[in-house]
Amino acid sequence: PAYEQAGCPRVDYWQHGVDINREFVHEDLPWEERQNGIVFCGHNYGPATFPAGQKRIDLVRAFTGEFPDFIVYGRGWDDVDGVHCGGELPHDQQSQLYHRAKVSIGINHYNDIDCGFSDRQFIAMASGTAHVCHWIPGIENYFHTGVDCIIYHTISDAIINVKWLLRYENERCKVGNQGRELIRAEHTWDMRVQEYVGLLKKHGLWQWN
Fold it and tell me: Rounded distance, CA 175 to CA 31, Å?
């Protein structure tokens, strides 16, 4: 509505994607050789800066208590007692980290915006590592919980699902592999450009043959 009030008669949301030449180049380690355990990449801006800031902190604390090999990467975690922080990880190294992990975790700063997940979702899933992510409205339009990722609503729900993935390696491998294939098939930037061209044609704005 705000865009329409500003004079934009047609507004569509264009989802981000992954670079197939960057996210699919790392070699996957066998599950028994993956040393990163459970990982989360995300900054801590304090409990009040974003709506889900406190829940992100609570999740990291809970996972630190439940899983000795849980590591968080990002700024702002050194001041949180007991948290094992691997420091800030450059964006271009996150994919390599995921490729060496058993499970990756996702939680946004906003968990109430329709389809508003970060590119962490795509990068983590593209690695072939099982990804456990927080529910947001509309996420079911992109992913299928228990098939290509695991979607949770509460922190305790996330912990239960991670324990299940760690216990059943075949299921963890299946979720990770199907997540990667989904990203490769539907969520690369090549696919996004095709969608963008489709939007232009839909609105009669495409001027090339």
Answer: 13
